[in-house]
Amino acid sequence: MQSVPPFRLARTPSNESTSAAGTYASLTDACCAPTDAQLRNPHRRARLTDLDSHLHCSIIGTCLSTNELRKLVPKFTDLDRQHATDLEIHHAAVELAIEGGPGAKALQKALDARYAGAVRRFETAKSTEALLALWKEALKSGDIPPAYWAVMTHPHAIMSVRQAAFGDLHMLSHLVGAANRADIRRLVALEEENAALKDKIERQQDKLHELSTERDASIRHLSAQVAELSAKAERSPGTSAASLEAEVIALREALAARDERLAIHTSRRETAEQRALDEQRYAQTLSQRLDDTIAMLNVVQAECNALEQALAAPGDETGSNGSKTPDLTNLSGKRVVYVGGRPGSNAALRHLVESAGGDFVVHDGGIEDRKGMFAAALPRADIVVFPVDCIDHDSMNLLKRVCDRHQVDYHPLRTASVASFVELMTRLGRASSQSGNTPPASRFCLRHG
Known about the structure:
It contains 15 helices and 6 strands. With about 450 residues, it is mostly helical. It has a 4-stranded parallel β-sheet, sandwiched between helices. A two-stranded antiparallel ribbon has the order 1-2. Helix 2 crosses helix 4.
């Protein structure tokens, strides 16, 4: 069966022989051909380097946390563990997986060690149908990372199975993004509950302190009474020994009742303190997630504000359909090359740039257009823009190398939306006017993204 990667790849010339097997002679993409080891032993689990390079991003981003990568990646790169961003760490890990070598082996070892249980559980699947059934069960239970690693490296994971798992994971990422608002609401509610629990614990601690003080005073009072009664008994030989013994027993019972009451309150206090600690740790976790979400909201708000200000700018023009055109006068006479993106938003961006007097050239990053066209299109460009959510790692690295070779200014966009493009152009125009029309340096490293 012919293997098909999750992305359509650009056709590249190949000088390699196709003597592996007759059934694979029609493959024109060398990266899609199975290895000799796979042809000799079809029952062996796939290694990370055996997988298609376009799957490495989803596997590393899903199955390994940022903290794990931050400990592992700097051992094989020159990244600073403390100051490198999460995106730089992720890009470096993907490059290590693509390049192979010690870095890829370390990633493979970390994944196998962490998900050994899931790998053993998926070994019971002896067919592609059974493997897909186990994957669907993992989706329902929400235990995605272990199942994703196990299914991607399973001996029966043909390309159609990997494509199905990749597609399910891709759609799940959209659902997770839509759930951020609900998480924020739950975090606010938990913070209020945590504050109420803290107040309750403080009141209980004050009450227990009062009870402890009262108990100590009662013990001293009862001890004084016992001593007084003992002295009276010694001074009054005619006093009945039985009455004195009964009074001592009554005092001891009263003291035991107070001790029991104190033990009950102490147990309640310890339980409340443990619950408060658990709630505090959970609240700290949610607070971190809230900070990340607020940072993302600030970025989105900045994009929306830039788009609104551009649309409401005085002297703005009106398009052919009666809608307002943002004020992008800094693009007048400039050639903008846009790599990646989506067809719908690319058409709107072309209209904006051409309305501002600029030239807009679109390259899809290698899906339909050849990646070799970078060398012809980029040298004549004034600025190169690419959305990081609609371009693969290979095209991004090639784009950076070509731009650096020809000294062309390039900028990444957070998304392929019109708002992200307008915010970037507005920011560049503002920076250009402040620095004497000097184009700002790229914020991305050529090696690490």
